[in-house]
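U., I forgot to send this yesterday:
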Amino acid sequence: MSAYTVYADQLPGLLARWNGKYAVYAPKDIGEGIYDFRPWRQGDEIAWDYDLAYNSLKRFLIPPKEPLISYDLSRCTAEPIFEAPAQLLFGVHPYDLRAITQLDQLMESGAPDNYYLRRREQTVIMALEPLRVAEGSFWGSVGAERVDVGFDLYWTKLGPSSFLVEVGTQRGEELLLDGGDLAQATPGEREAARRAKGRILSKARKGMAFDWREIPKLLGKAWDSPLWEQRSELCLACGSCNMVCPTCYCFDIREEVDDSLKGGVRYRVWDSCMLHSFAAVAGNHNFRRKALERYRHRTYRKGKYIFDRLGELGCVGCGRCVRACTAGIANPLRTFNDLWEAARNEG
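Result:
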């Protein structure tokens, strides 16, 4: 993998050029220790040391409300609506990149989601090695600390004035060299980047009492665990854990008919498997009427169902659900550890 050295005084010019081709989003400090990806404008400060973006990045690929088709009832016609703006996400941490590559695999398989795939094709991803780990994050303990695909460029801060930039795609290299030739990274700079990755990883490996690869097997024997009822009794069924999760992608379909009742637009909107209405069907049936069933389903999706399909967990350890859950029960790390401890005591 080729790599270049970029100096801090070269970056504003690069960002300005990219901003002429793409809508550029970068992490910003929005106050009170909260960071989020916001539109970048000339002169904006990038929060290089951000620990966690408040909102997940899935909103750039699966908007909370996305138009799918417009229709004319008087003519009985319908046309697809594809909105895929050219966008550049600068500063994506590896766990969020892992979530995106997971979505890539899921959206490409079976019946491909062309709405997602068109947005993804129009999205440049420039990853960034973290400098800090958020308090509730545990991405180093669930296999989400390193991603070798899915990014166009991968930036590692070597010091206050320089970066090592690894190339992931031809598109990324062309964008990087858009302003002229750059120096190839030296062996010493590559070694400095490797050490930087090792330092942050040692801080991100925390909390998991056992090897994360054992989680699917653990859940295979935990279906009737009393933990599901104990935790779900506190659940408010608000769906916050799903809304902030970077790997949750379930949606509902809504219709908005115009005032003339002759046309309208069909949208998809984010949905949550933790809501009572999620599994409700005709005839007053509900496949997950109980909070216990919904809580257990979310845990199995994170720890087993996605693993069975892709070989990786559906949880990337970002910790957003830990922040969002007012009942204090959404933390997958705590759930997995408690199930593991219960299994040890039974054995």
